[in-house]
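job 3f2a | input accepted
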Amino acid sequence: MSSFIAADLGLPAINHGAGMHILLLDLDQIISFSKAFFAATCIFPVAALALKFSILFFYRRIFAVQKFAIWCYIISVVCVAWFIAFVVSTFLICRPLACFWDKTITGCKCTNLKHIAYYVTSPPDILTNIAILILPIPWLWNLQMPTRRKFAIIIIFLLGS
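job 3f2a | predicted structure (161 res):
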């Protein structure tokens, strides 16, 4: 669902200057593109959290072991904390918020978007992705089957996640 919404936001962005050099755009196109970009920035954490939860719930259903469930809950809590940090940092980038898409407003105070993306939201996102990838490996490795088949199943899990 969120990918459809993101696609709907991407089409107006294309019509309002996405893919063009900023010097070729007028102010209205820049503002329209920035609004679409902000909306997509708000939708991304929802889509990412839903995807991570769907994988963790799938894992939880396959591996009915208490220790595995605890790890799933721990990763889920970290994912929710990441989601909250992402949403809060998105809405606190500029004061007032309209300065995100309209730089002509006087009295704007904006933080550097790259710093927030690189230092606040990306590391926990990457770490939870890695944790979700490697979480089932110990349990898959302990299956009673030939080693070659274990490797094949682990690779299938890694590709599916």
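job 3f2a | The mean pLDDT is 84.
job 3f2a | closed
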